[in-house]
Every structure is written in structure tokens, then in C-alpha cells.
Design a protein that fits this description.
Two copies of one chain form a homodimer. The first copy, chain A, is an alpha/beta fold and 350 residues long. Chain A folds into two domains: 183 residues, Stage V sporulation protein AD (Peroxisomal Thiolase, Chain A, domain 1, 3-Layer(aba) Sandwich), CATH 3.40.47.40; 157 residues, Stage V sporulation protein AD (Peroxisomal Thiolase, Chain A, domain 1, 3-Layer(aba) Sandwich). The first copy, chain A, is built from eleven helices and 17 strands. In chain A, helix 3 crosses helix 4 and helix 7 runs parallel beside helix 8. The longest helix of chain A has 20 residues. The two termini of chain A are 28 Å apart. At the A-B interface, helix 1, helix 4, strand 6, helix 5 and helix 11 of A face helix 1, helix 4, strand 6, helix 5 and helix 11 of B.
Chain lengths: 350, 350
């Protein structure tokens, strides 16, 4: 019996179905000025007008965004830091310094993760396993990114005035956080559905050999393709099973590649696909080229727009697939390719 | 009932006790030349004489160490890559490039983690939860570090010829890997005990404000102290409960600080404490100053010497606490402190 119970959580080759789907009991989004001026601007909990968020460096600014997101998600849940058993989080900076300096004061045991821009998917996946598995009553999953810090880390400092090709994306300045808890412990607002994480499909590294750090959408699209295809196969479903299939930050270039790759396998997601990187900025007026990117892109879009649609029952079931490009300044300078990874999370309004 | 079962896994404030303690069914250690010449040299599966491991850069060399460790741990278990459901791993390099390029070819879904030199503790902890929770039948936990890559990443390139103070540690060149599986699935060698992960205590970030990247033992000791103290309190045990209490890479400086901090709380671990960073190099002949460090330090010591003692029943129960210093080149250059983190894993021969 115990053996049967355990087996049933593993679905297909690489997916997991939760027996006690954890509930997202709180969510918070802190965004930068440019993000605040975009189409989702009115939905963010806080928009920081100051790009340095009152700090002295881009790295400290990003830590502050994360600190504010953690504070806000606790406040909205009516919880204290001591109510959270584990924090799962990470960011884009080398050695996760935005996270380390952003959440240290909370004194919550930390599971530090790195999945590039797929980090929110990885954080929610691990957090969901911790809650469903009975290892934690409440888990905080969080990530962040900052435009200026990411440019400095991966490409050129802003002062250099480098030109951006049209395939380049714009790293979102922002931090998104959710608190996951046992479904039964949620004192839900009676008018709203419970928002639960029903299952996950952790992704593999996929490397088609692209070497252009200014075209990350193309580098990540094959990883998104593999994870989404595997999700369909593992659960035996078609694209229409989901009201929306939402990638993290493929942007305009990557979106088309993803749709084409899936079409070759007879999966047509063209009518229900959405990309956070495309939604977060206005293509015509905001000059962000291929769209938004960064850990913060999918995180703040999820914790604002996507959750709103689920809470309003406009969507009942979404497949949320944050996508990451596993490059570093060093690997890029040494002429290595840009491998991609994508972690899928099934989120339902019930 | 289901509620009771779930509650019982959470122990005290931040520990977990596994109901079906996962078994370490295979382990592998790949070490560099200097490590091979040290006291544990004869216990490593492979010693690489070439510091570049046949590659063109330190980063590629580290990826190759990890690739070899993954290959060896699979080979020793008689398993293929497709037998492993998830891989949990990370390294010290920014954006985990040693891991990304080291394990991509295995095509195993990746949970990328960063815990600085505590990474092996974090990987084994997450791996154990995946197996105990029924989310995976077999998980590969892996980490690596490389002396030259770490010096380049965190301090100065070797060519610069920087002098090393006596408080500095020597980053271990090596990679260690274990495969975790359900205890019942283990076809154990009848003469050897099962080696199981009985419980874990994930650690918090602890920052006493030290800013010296050449004295990481002192920066990490407070984190080890907090995690070990919490482990004692959560499980209601005294230091003698463990045959050995084994920190990752505190070295000579950090070891004394840890023992003193615990003594102030009336815990005396002086007789059963051991530090991987002290064991791996010979103090008199190898000129490594404070001792060994790096993700690879605790990983190769665990997968060689520590597991051997457990398999021979010289020790029956150890508390393994890899310790990490959460600095980056950027945070150090910006004058930030070096926060520490430590994740404890209870390993038993049964």
C-alpha cells in the first residue's frame, strides 16, 4: 500500500502529480518603474520608481526588491517570518547574492537554487514537494532580477552604451513571491477559488548549440519545447487540457520557435500560448525588442496577472513554464553555447 | 491519520525525520593530484593528475570532473542515466556553469542548487526528500569544485601570484556524487550495512559581519554552530548521539570557533568533531594553510573516507554538515560581509 501510494506520485518519465496539491495562499509582486508603465503596471503590489530602490548598487537594489517582496507576501498572508518553515529562492547573480543579502534578515532556513530565468518554476516545484510531502507547513518561494544588475553581470555595464539587437530581451526589474501551504490550512476568502499546484514537470538541460547571448529566446525555446512535450506525454493530455500554456521569457523570437517545434510533434499551442516576456512590456511604446526576461519576469507576471485570471476563474488550469538560459559571463567569453532549461508547474483554480 | 503522518516528518523548528530513510546505494569521488597526494588519496575512485583534466579551461576541467563523477557513480551502481529520475547538483561558479556543462549530456531533469560549499549537504537533503516523499525512485546528488577555477572566480587568477594568508583555505579540486534510492530497492552486499539518510536540518543564513574572503572558516563557523545547535534541540539529543559530527570546510580557524560557540551553549563536540577540510590535506607537508575548502571538499571526503567508516561500522551515526560562505566577487568588491550557511544531514549505518 505504502509502495502504491508512493508510485502514484511519479507520472510518466519526469512528472509529478501531487496527492495533496499545495495551495498558493499569498502572492506578492514588486516591480520597477518601466514594468509599472507597462500593460500589467496596475496589477503589481508595489512599483519602485527609483531604479536603485534607495540603495548604493544594482545588487543591493535587487536584494531590496526581494526583501520587499518577502515582506509583502508575508503581510498579505497575515504571517510572520517565523511562520515560514523553509524559503526556496534564487536569482540571476553569481553566487545568488541578491537572495543571500535580500532574505538573510528573515532568518528562515534557505534552500538556495539556480535555474537562471526558470528559477520561479523551480522554486514553486520544490516548495510544492516540501508541502505535499509533509516536510513543511508553509514555504516561501521567491526570485528576483534587475535590469541594470543583469546587464552588468551578463553583458556590458549600462555606462558602456552598448547597442541592443532586436533579438535581445530586456531583463525585468522586479521580485515575485508566493507562500505555499497545505490546502486544508488555507482560510480562503469564500468568493475566491483555492489556487493549487497540481503537478510539475522538472526540465532537462537542452542545448542546440546557440552561442548568442543577445538571442536567449532562441536558446531557451528548445528547452521549453522538451518540457512541454514531456508534460503532455507524461499526463497523456493535449494542449487544450490547459486554458493557457505560459512560458517565462521566450519573447517574440522564442515564441515562434516553440510553436513551430511543437507543431512538428503535432501539438498546436498557437491559440492558447502566452509568454510573460511578451505580456509585461508594450511592444510599440516601450522599446524592449524581443520582450522581457529575467527571473523576475515570470515571477511578477505570475504573482499579478496570471493569479488574477485564475482567481477570477477566467482560466481554470494553466501550465506555467519559466524558461532559463544557463550562460555565465565566463562561459560566454570562453565561447561556450547557451544551454536552456524549463520547469513546468500545473496551477489550477479549484 | 494522513495529517498525523505528515506532521511527524517535521521535527522541532527546522528539522526533518524521514519515514522511509533513503539509502545511499552508490558513491563516487574524483579528485585532483594534490588531493590524491593527501591522507585520503588512496580512497578516491579516481585521481586526475592533469589539473586541466584534458580540457582547455579551468571551468571545462571542473565540468569534466563532474561528468566523470556522475559516470563513475552510475557505473558503480550498475545503472544508466535513464535510471535516474532527477539530478540535484551545483557548484561554486557563477550561474553553475560547471554543473550545466558537466551534466547536460546525461539528459536527466536537473534541480540546480547553490549553497556555496554547503552544496553537497543541500543536494543530499533535497535528494532524500525526493526519494522519501515518493517523487523519485532514484536521485543523483552531485557537486564539484576546482582550485584554479575558484581562485579565478573569487580571488585572483593564479598567474597573479597573490600571497595567501594563513587563514586562507585551499579549494579542493574534485567532484563527489551519490545515488539515493528507496531503501527497499537496494540490493545490498550482504556484508555491508545499508547507509541511510535518517534526517536533515536545513540551515539559515548567518552573518556575523566578517568581511575577509581569506578567512572563510571564521565566516562559516557561526552558521555551522546555529545548524548543529538546532539539530541537537530539534531532535533532543546531545553531541554523543553522533559518533562523528563532521563539518565541511571550516579548517583549523573555523573549527576552534565552532567548538567554542557550542561550548557556550553547553554542548561539547571537541571529542567527536571532524572537519573534512582538515582531513583532506596534510597540514605539515601540503602547505594548504587553514585546510581544504570548496563544494568538492566535503563531497569527496564523504564519498570516500566517511562512507568507508560507516560501511565498516566504525561509525554508526554521523552528522554531516557541509558549510558554505555566501560571497561573490561582486559582493566582496562592494565591501559586503561574507554570510555563512550550513545544511546538516544525519547519515546512519543500519
Amino acid at each position: 500500500m505504502s509502495e502504491n501510494v508512493k508510485q502514484s506520485k511519479m507520472v510518466g518519465k519526469q512528472s509529478i502529480l501531487f496527492q495533496n496539491p499545495p495551495c498558493i495562499i499569498s502572492a506578492a509582486s514588486i516591480a520597477g518603474k518601466k514594468e509599472g508603465e507597462g500593460p500589467l503596471g496596475s496589477l503589481f503590489d508595489v512599483v519602485c520608481e527609483d531604479p536603485l530602490v534607495g540603495k548604493n548598487s544594482w545588487e543591493e537594489a535587487e536584494s531590496e526588491l526581494m526583501k520587499q517582496a518577502a515582506g509583502k507576501v508575508l503581510e498579505k498572508a497575515g504571517l510572520k517570518n517565523t511562520d515560514i518553515r523553509y524559503l526556496v529562492g534564487g536569482d540571476l547573480l553569481g553566487q545568488l547574492i541578491a537572495t543571500s543579502f535580500g532574505i538573510a534578515e528573515l532568518e528562515i532556513p534557505l534552500i538556495g537554487i539556480y535555474g537562471a530565468c526558470s528559477t520561479m518554476g523551480e522554486a514553486m516545484s520544490i516548495g510544492a514537494m516540501l508541502v505535499d510531502g509533509g516536510y513543511a507547513d508553509k514555504v516561501l518561494a521567491i526570485t528576483s532580477s534587475h535590469f541594470a544588475g543583469a546587464e552588468k553581470q551578463f553583458r556590458f555595464p549600462l555606462d558602456y552604451g552598448n547597442q541592443r539587437p532586436y533579438s535581445a530581451s530586456w531583463t525585468v526589474t522586479g521580485s515575485g513571491a508566493v507562500i505555499l501551504a497545505d490546502r486544508n490550512s488555507n482560510k480562503k476568502n469564500s468568493s475566491e477559488p483555492n489556487i493549487v499546484i497540481k503537478g510539475i514537470t522538472p526540465g532537462k538541460i537542452v542545448d542546440y548549440g546557440l552561442k548568442d547571448s543577445m538571442n536567449m529566446g532562441a536558446a531557451m525555446a528548445p528547452a521549453a519545447f522538451e518540457t512541454i512535450k514531456q508534460n503532455f506525454e507524461d499526463f497523456g493530455v493535449q494542449p487544450s487540457y490547459y486554458d493557457k500554456i505560459i512560458t517565462g521569457d521566450l519573447g517574440y523570437v522564442g515564441k515562434n520557435i516553440l510553436i513551430d517545434l511543437l507543431k512538428e510533434k503535432n501539438y498546436d499551442i498557437s491559440s492558447n500560448h502566452m509568454d510573460c516576456g511578451i505580456e509585461i512590456f508594450d511592444k510599440d511604446s516601450q522599446d524592449t525588442h524581443a520582450g522581457g526576461s529575467g527571473c523576475g519576469c515570470s515571477a511578477v507576471t505570475f504573482t499579478s496577472y496570471i493569479l488574477k485570471q485564475l482567481k477570477e476563474r477566467s482560466w481554470k488550469r494553466v501550465l506555467f513554464i519559466p524558461t532559463g538560459a544557463l550562460l555565465s559571463q565566463v562561459s560566454f567569453n570562453e565561447g561556450k553555447s547557451v544551454p536552456g532549461i524549463a520547469h513546468a508547474v500545473i496551477v489550477e483554480a479549484e
